[in-house]
Amino acid sequence: MITTEDIAYGLEITAKLMELHNENPFKVKALNSAAYKLGKTRIDLDNQTVEELTKIEGIGKSLAEKIMEFITTGTTKELRDLMANTPTGVIEMLGIKGLGPKKVRQLWIELELESVTDLLYACHENRLIELKGFGEKTQNTIIQNIEFKIKNTGWFHYAYAEKIGQPIIDAIKEQTDLVSFTGAMYRHCEVIEEIDILIGDEQIDLDEFFSETIPINFIQVNPNLFYRKLVETSGTNEHIEGINFKNLETKIYKSEEEIYSNLKVQYCGPELREGLFELEKAKNNQLPKLIELTDLKGILHNHSTYSDGMNTLEEMALYCKHLGYQYLGICDHSQTAGYAGGLKTETVLLQQQEIEKLNKQLFPFKIFKGIESDILGNGNLDYEEDILKTFDFIVASIHSNLKMDEGKATTRLIKAIENPYTTILGHPTGRLLLGRPGYPIDHKKIIDACAANKVVIELNAHPYRLDIDWRLIPYCLEKGVMISINPDAHQLKGYHDMRYGINVARKGLLTKEHCLNAMDLSTFENYLSLKK
User: Fold this and answer.
1) Could you tell me if 173 and 179 are in contact, meaning their C-beta atoms sit under 8 angstroms apart?
2) Which pLDDT tens digit goes with each residue over 99-150?
3) How deeply is 275 buried, as exposed, middle or buried, from its count of CB atoms within 10 A (0-12, 13-18, 19+)?
4) Which fold has domain 293-531?
5) Model's pTM, two decimal places?
6) Is the domain defined by 156-283 classed in CATH 3.30.460.10?
7) CATH 3.40.50.300 holds for 4-151
8) Is 219 helix (H, G, I), strand (E, B) or coil?
9) Backbone dihedral angles phi then psi of residue 459, each to the nearest 5 degrees
């Protein structure tokens, strides 16, 4: 089944190939805009018609028909023709971060490079240094990005692997209750190489279960060995050795908890079994009660149709309330983010008026006036003070100029953190898992600055971000820096990404006491008033 992400990618690659072949720039812009919209929102395209698709902002009849062709055939005639006229290796070059269609065309036509391998070899021969628009710095960046892409070949986002694996788990559960993810899937790792499934039944026929994209390993054991094998296969080697698993008494165990008890080690939930900072705490019975999804009382950092979201402010608020949350923080893009419909000053004031009106209607539920303010290259936020002070809270994020070195990038972030109007530092590194590594920063200096200025750090729960990295959460806790788990939702179903944030927050030993949006409404209101 073709997904919204597949269609967004299809539109994007069509636009890139059209630009590569110097075709109509207006069509290229329209395709890119539609791809961005669909990719950002992941809108459900099932059972859509051309007429319904044209109701989406920026999608006219011609684009709607193209999307319907993707839905029904998985591709379009236009895309097939473009790909037929482009060497496969040149298409692969378009997937290298930092290489747009114009640069790829230049490499293809002027240097006659027709594959990523050719390009990497040319870089090592310094053939790009004298090429107009490139130079040594660009050449080195291309080498790094090619190596990053090669390194991540064969990896998948957890959310994607879950979509493949969970239906298989559910089907096997019809035959036995003793079935579970194990390995990296059971630990809720951000990216996955393969899906491991443990089954406490050696007789079940598994021939019908397979995936064409991601490897699936089935481990079948005697039901009496199920929990023992679950602990053994879910932990890293370091964790298994650290809890002295080899000393486990030979008997039938009815739970994982019973196994840890037998080993005289505090129970480590599956997400903790990394062999890192959990071991010492578990041996000394010092593991805290970890945060759970039900601990969250509000959802912060969300987008509406005021910028690049798919749902109105009222729809976002009503669904948030329907899910049982006490408050919503709306954080549409700020004015510098023109590509995302960032809010000019007059639009900010209009939105705030609507918020006040909705708060009267939805009481006691509350919408807080927020903004995702772009951090400019010099570290400033992109509104004047008279506008900044109108917000209840501000998420400060970087979206542009991502090529600074570590020193400059760290200085830039620290200046934004020191801004008295900054409440939350949004997705601190800007990373996209399996897409880009994020800009280099001195993480400890950033966390120290947040501690000194009482700024919260975001754990962006979008499954492609999960940024801040969970491995840094213990240092945040040590320094007294709170974490805010935010979905960066651009449509209603984006709220459900919160669970991915919870998964990795637990890996970092986060508790509800150290999570900003685990505060109830009155406590959160008081927190913001003290911040001001």
Assistant:
1) yes
2) 999 999 999 998 888 888 788 877 876 778 878 889 888 888 898 888 787 7
3) middle
4) TIM Barrel (3.20.20)
5) 0.80
6) yes
7) no
8) strand
9) -105, 100
